[in-house]
Write a structure and sequence with these properties.
The structure holds 2 protein chains of 2 kinds. Chain A is of the alpha+beta class. Chain A is built from 22 helices and 30 strands. Classes of the chains: A alpha+beta, B alpha+beta. At the A-B interface, loops of A face strand 7 and helix 3 of B.
């Protein structure tokens, strides 16, 4: 491991001349920023076509109802309305999207528009296309839908009873259920000196909110039968896999194009229903159609993060604070449709023991549908909920047994010298030093003066608390884990693609299979290519965005699951290595030398030790592409190479639910200090530190940006971002009036630190990162707990989101939550 | 949402009953009525523009008198459809003679569904309270006019 010092303050812009030899690990200027700050980015909504129509969805006001009739005639009478689409048409023209689950979830029929029944407020019933967006909205108001209301269910535990069933064809609200049992939990329980029981914990429903809502412009080519989708889907490979069979066409009939995307966070992975509706409309109306989601629709009817209830948590603990494992019953609420589910039922298992050396874990996991918006991956997908549980366990156990949560963490953390570390379910944690990260975080917030700060706060009538959150940001999925849920699925491994070529004028051109949404892929790809080819990042043109016609995409190409630094840059490195080899072969042929004698430096291919014998890249490009007569016939090169990077995964053991589910494990350790006004419950985060370890950092400034973003996501989720429904199933937080996303001014004073634990498993020693926000959610919960409770006394912070009124309630009725926890000491 | 209250009228119960059971007179008490159609003595329809927070919500509301015990009790169901909103309301009143006038106990259960309900929930209660006071004042006026003949 290489360890660097904590450097909370770094220059935002690297001045020219500061660059050290080599570009990996340097803060080179971001290639994307110039066009973005000058307003020259091209987002899907910037793409216009002649005579295009605007799409407006007609949405259900009911949480659950039968559709008796849909009458679009009045809308069609309006001048400027081009056409409509209804669920009945969708049911004829398409097949249901395939389901990932085994039965009963497999029997659910999910279409682009509601067919026969609506299952959540906002469920799209019909679509209208008109000359302007406003006219489409007006016309949608004229669509008359007659409903027959049905009883609804909004709570995951209630849904389990199947008294109200959302999907008749499935016959049950349960999408998937299974028991995961690793180690020997019963023996651990028998061996424990203390058993801590937590009756209930709840991870609230929230979502990341991209600045740019979802949308697309879809064109249909009648001659070829192909659709071109200018959109902001962040995982188009999977989008096509869902859409093409539903539309009864081959995957190549769907071309996905994007340049700039204003954030994704997972919300833009499950856009296949809306995109399919737009494809049908473009074909039906023979004109391009454009759909831009309204913010209210994004909140009401796009996707949320998974809501999860943890019941009957049981934790065996030794007298010295060693935790032997835990058992829990988890109920995951995926909303009305399992659009990306039940993958969330296994993704959490990538981080089964969290950061800890727990060897005995039993998880009884059930996922159910409710009459709420569907869920989708949300930055930290499924692991965030589980890691919050593991952290909550550590803090509650430490508090109830009168132990220092810092010491309990250090005692139970996986030790630096134990890496690579195999978890009880066969995942391999590649590298890290959690205790060191924790020490840095504590140092940054001045943990040594904790009691002094507490006294000071108390002298002002405030309650003071400090809390820790530890997160693993598992990256680069082994898709084979989905087979643990459904052995019929034909998924295993992972891959990503890049192409690199040297053009006739010596320009290095890179195409990526990924779909960047602000992560700086052009910049980091250029750093890697420049380092390998011996040129500068300025010499490398990384094509902006994504286009499936570039032949640089694989089945699951996209930007998700913290993997670009591994799979994306692994593909770039592989392609650049191949190109470098070809360039050396060409130069060697010209010079009559061996390729081993050639080096690539300063945008030249030259003979080592003889700087005068040098060919500029332009000459290489020109020779191969234009002046190639006379080249040796055995020289089989193109200077245009494609590389597929495949991590070395094996299929999991399905019987034991055992295997390496993810390649890398980045870490974030957060520390938070809060002051609470006990009269009102209003609290302030008065100090905050985030320490990151994502292996070798390609571009430290981009990493730091991700740490800041993940922290903002966490603080919003911990303090006030929550999707609340009323008893009728209406979402009460459908826009930014009611759903407050942290602004810059909401952010606390924040200090950052880092270490770099090189991954032994990846091409660049880097790890995927960016989804470490779960640490922050728990850091706030733990700080609140520390402020309001003591050993055996006071309320228990049992929910992930604790707005001021929630904290006030905790303080007013401590017994209501105190009874959730019990300790059996032997 | 449930709302309930009492109202005193300086008129005998049969006068109040007459006003409350005359759709045409009741239409004059409702806020934002743009048109009103009486289908029969138990069913009528109103097109209204309900002031709701950031803008008016246009709705077509079907009223049905579901229970009637002349001269003191009636129960009414209303179902409204608007853009992005569905309104369901059950309301009833009970009249008793009091000090030469009439005491009316009333209650209503209002359910607003759909996106408008999502956006308007935060402001719904004060708006309903305000509209109820308008309706009651208008009703008082109608009763006085009926009493005066």
């Amino acid at each position: 491991m290489t360890e660097t010092t904590v450097t909370p303050e770094r220059p935002l812009v690297v001045e020219s001349g500061e660059l050290k030899p080599g570009f990996i690990g340097q803060n080179v200027p971001r290639k994307e920023d110039k066009r973005l700050v000058q307003g020259e980015g091209v987002f899907f909504d910037d793409v216009k076509r002649h005579e295009m129509g605007y799409v407006q969805f007609v949405r259900s006001p009911y949480a659950h109802a039968r559709i008796k009739s849909v009458d679009v005639s009045k809308a069609l009478e309006l001048d400027g309305v081009y056409g409509t689409l209804t669920g009945d048409e969708v049911a004829i023209l398409t097949d249901p999207f395939f389901e990932l689950s085994t039965p009963p979830g497999a029997n659910i029929k999910d279409y682009a528009l509601a067919v026969g029944r609506v299952r959540h407020v906002g469920d799209p019933v019909a679509a209208v296309v008109a000359r302007t967006r406003e006219l489409a909205r007006d016309a949608a108001e004229l669509v008359e839908v007659e409903y027959d209301p049905l009883p609804h269910v909004l709570d995951g535990e209630e849904s389990l009873k199947d008294e109200v069933v959302l999907h008749e064809e499935a016959g049950s609200n349960t999408v998937w259920s299974g028991v995961f049992d690793w180690g020997d939990f019963d023996a651990a329980l028998a061996d424990a000196d203390h058993v801590v029981r937590i009756e209930r914990l709840h991870f609230d429903r929230f979502s990341s909110t991209p600045l740019e809502c979802s949308g697309c412009l879809v064109e249909f080519n009648r001659g070829t039968g192909q659709w071109t989708i200018h959109g902001n889907h962040q995982m188009p490979g999977v989008g096509a896999i869902w859409m093409a069979p539903a539309l009864r066409v081959g995957i190549d009939k769907l071309r996905f194009v994007s340049q700039d995307i204003g954030g994704g966070f997972g919300n833009k992975i499950t856009l296949h229903p809306q995109y399919t509706a737009c494809c049908l409309l473009a074909r039906k109306l023979n004109r391009p159609v454009q759909w831009t989601e309204w913010r209210t629709d994004q909140h009401t009817a796009n996707t949320h993060g998974n809501e999860r209830t943890f019941l009957d948590v049981t934790v065996p603990v030794k007298a010295d604070g060693t935790m032997l494992g835990f058992s829990v019953r988890a109920i995951d609420d995926c909303g009305a449709f399992p659009r990306y589910e039940p993958l969330g039922c296994i993704i959490w298992a990538q981080v089964t023991p969290g950061c800890y050396r727990w060897r005995n874990v039993r998880v009884d996991f059930t996922q159910v549908c409710t009459n709420k918006s569907p869920v989708a991956p949300n930055r930290g997908y499924s692991r965030m909920q589980h890691l919050w549980l593991t952290e909550r366990i550590v803090d509650i156990v430490a508090s109830e047994l009168g132990m220092d949560p810092i010491e309990v963490r250090k005692k139970n953390y996986v030790k630096h010298e134990e890496f690579p570390y195999e978890t009880p379910n066969g995942c391999i944690y590649d590298s890290g030093d959690y205790a060191r990260c924790l020490d840095i975080a504590l140092d940054l917030i001045g943990y040594d003066s904790l009691e002094e700060k507490r006294r000071d706060a108390e002298s002002r009538g405030k309650l003071f608390g400090i809390g820790i959150g530890s997160t693993l940001d598992s990256g680069t999925n082994n898709f084979g884990q989905s087979m643990i849920l459904n052995p019929e699925l034909q998924f295993s491994g992972n891959n990503e693609v890049a192409t690199v070529k040297l053009d006739i004028f010596g320009e290095v051109v890179v195409t990526l299979g990924t779909v960047p949404q602000g992560q700086g892929h052009e910049t980091t790809a250029s750093q890697v290519v420049a380092e390998i080819l011996g040129c500068t990042p300025d010499d490398v043109n990384v094509r902006a965005g994504h286009d499936t016609y570039w032949n640089s995409t694989a089945g699951f190409s996209g930007t998700y699951a913290s993997q670009f630094a591994v799979t994306g840059l692994g593909a770039v490195k592989g392609a650049a290595d191949k190109l470098a080899g070809e360039m050396k072969q060409l130069a060697a042929a010209v010079f009559g030398a061996s390729p081993d004698d050639i080096e690539l430096v300063e945008s030249l291919a030259r003979i080592k030790g003889n700087p005068e014998a040098a060919l500029p890249f332009m000459a290489l490009g020109a020779i191969l592409n234009a002046n190639n007569a006379g080249l040796p016939p055995e020289l089989d090169i193109t200077l245009n190479v494609r590389h597929v990077y495949r991590p070395a995964f094996e299929k999991p053991d399905l019987e034991r639910k055992f295997g390496n589910l993810t390649l890398t494990y980045a870490t974030q350790i957060h520390a938070c200090a809060v002051e609470i006004d006990p009269e009102t419950g209003v609290y302030e985060i008065v100090d905050y530190a985030a320490v990151d370890d994502c292996g070798n950092r390609i571009h430290p400034q981009i990493v730091e940006g991700q740490v800041h973003g993940a922290t903002a996501q966490a603080l919003g989720a911990a303090t006030h971002e929550i999707f609340t429904y009323d008893e009728e199933g209406n979402l009460l937080t459908p826009n930014f009036y009611d759903y407050h996303v942290p602004h810059a001014l909401d952010m606390p004073p924040m200090k950052t630190g880092f270490i770099e634990s090189e991954s032994p498993f990846t091409p660049l020693g880097a790890k995927g990162m960016g989804e470490g926000g779960g640490a922050g959610i728990h850091a706030v919960c733990a700080a609140l707990q520390n402020a309001v409770g003591r050993r055996g006394e006071g309320p228990i912070v049992w929910r992930s989101c604790n707005p001021y009124e929630g904290v006030w309630e905790l303080l007013q009725k401590p017994d209501e939550t105190r009874k959730l926890v019990s300790v059996e000491s032997r | 949402m449930k709302v309930a209250g009492e109202k005193q009228f300086e008129a005998p119960p049969d006068t109040v009953w007459q006003v409350l059971n005359d759709p045409a007179q009741m239409a004059k008490t409702m806020p934002g009525v743009e048109s009103f159609d009486i289908q029969d003595e138990r069913h009528w329809r109103a097109h209204v523009k309900i002031p709701l927070g950031l803008g008016g919500l246009r709705m077509s509301i079907d009223f049905e008198k579901v229970e009637e015990r002349e001269p003191d009790f009636a129960k009414l169901h209303a179902k409204g459809n608007g853009v992005g909103a569905v309104l369901n309301m059950d309301t009833s009143f009970n009249l008793t003679e009091a000090d030469g006038g009439t005491n009316m106990k009333w209650e209503a259960e209002v359910h607003l569904l759909g996106p408008v309900a999502s956006m308007g929930q935060r402001v719904l209660q004060p708006i309903v309270n305000q509209q109820v006071s308008h309706v009651l004042a208008a009703l008082d006026k109608q009763v006085q006019e009926a009493k005066a003949g």
